[in-house]
Amino acid sequence: MKKHIGGTLLALAMxxxxxxxxxxxxxxxxxxxxxxxxAADTAVEGPSGAPEAPMDPEQGEYGYYQExxxxxxxxxxxxxxxxxxRTANLEMETTAFDGAVESLSRLTKEMGGYYENSSLRxxxxxxxxxxxxxxxxxxxxxEFLLRAGELCNLTWRSESAENVTEAYYDTEGRLRTQQIxxxxxxxxxxxxxxxxDIITIESAISETEYQIESLSGTLRRYDALVDFATVSINLxxxxxxxxxxxxxxxxxxxxxxxxxxxxxxxxxxxxNLIVGLAYSWMWLLTLAVILxxxxxxxxxxxxxxTAAKTEKTDDNAPKT
Length: 320
What we know:
Elements: H1 2-24, H2 36-41, H3 65-69, E1 84-94, H4 97-110, E2 114-122, E3 128-137, H5 141-151, E4 153-163, H6 165-191, H7 195-227, E5 228-237, H8 251-279, H9 281-316
Parallel strand pairs: 1-5
Antiparallel strand pairs: 1-4, 2-3, 3-5
Helix pairs in contact: 1-6, 4-5, 6-7
């Protein structure tokens, strides 16, 4: 019995050591740590137990490096199997807020996208703001940005692209290693007869299943971010659209532009002042009533003081 237990545990230890070495024997760039001729002469055993075809030493472990580095017929340098996460931020303004919100929603549906988050706020002056997080298919990302920028006045735009190709395929490789490990452990469990061996193997199976679920979730998250680009949109309702003017060349043109800008700023400031006064008319009316009552009180008090002073002067005057 002891020999049987020792033999089973020894076989389990050898299998786990072999699988761990296969999963961790990669260098930082994702290639196998073994030499190319050795990889070409060795057949790799697949998940079903049947030997697979030897790997091409020029392709790397997953066969995507050579394809990614190759150019297409048009001479484009884009990586064929690259995993790119694209994001953008748009800040827009409009004088027709309701129409812009409806047009943006219609455009998102037309592009095959959806709203991940949305919020609407109203300021004290009555103007509204909207914030959206839009997810659109990656192949229609550029078209969406172009058409969304035409719906309203675009004041700011930024884009970014994150290349997660290496991390994606490294995760995919580690997932495959864990799946093979799980199959070997399940096969070993079916042949185990000693309770101590069964408990040890089941514990290893539980840990392997956890790793598989975690790696699968990471791949699903990558796929979602790569397949659907993320666009954050801030939409503001304004009274007048902002404009960007080029700096005039001549001194006279600069003086004229300065006078025009000054007049525009004065007019806008006066309009804002009038709107602000109209918005707070109740406070102004209350303040006017209080001020009128205070002036009336001071006027009456002054009349009494003047009358008393006159009467006192008359009493002190000499009698003839």
